[in-house]
Specification:
Layout (H helix, E strand, L loop, with lengths): L1 H32 L6 H16 L7 H33 L9 H6 L4
Helix pairs in contact: 1-2, 1-3, 2-3
Length: 114
């Protein structure tokens, strides 16, 4: 019976750490999309959650899981944030094309910025 309790606590720590990292990462991702730097969101959420957990001076079992999933979120979101910004900038550039040049979208998209 004790083994089952330990197993359930470990699974709860993993699931809880994943949920905390996911929710804070997504919340800050959407917040930082307003300033067009969504990849900073998970970095800031990781820093805030780490500071809060460390400043309580308690040892939580979920801290390693939150740290692990937070770092994984930072790694995944950094490149995705850069791709999101590139897609967004590309869409804005195409919208600026005059109507009579709409057929030349591929040339316009591949043209370097002046």
């Amino acid at each position: 019976m004790q083994l089952i309790v330990i197993f359930l606590q470990a699974m709860g720590d993993v699931a809880g750490g994943m949920v905390v990292a996911l929710v804070t990462g997504l919340a800050f991702w959407n917040l930082f999309k307003l300033i067009h730097r969504p990849e900073w969101g998970p970095v800031v959420s990781f820093a805030i959650v780490t500071v809060i957990l460390v400043s309580t001076h308690r040892v939580y079992r979920m801290v390693p899981m939150i740290t692990l999933f937070g770092l994984m979120g930072i790694i995944c979101s950094w490149s995705e944030g850069a791709a999101w910004r590139a897609r967004r900038n590309g869409q804005n550039r195409i919208k600026d094309v005059p109507r009579h040049l709409q057929g030349l979208r591929t040339h316009y998209r591949n043209h370097p910025n002046p």
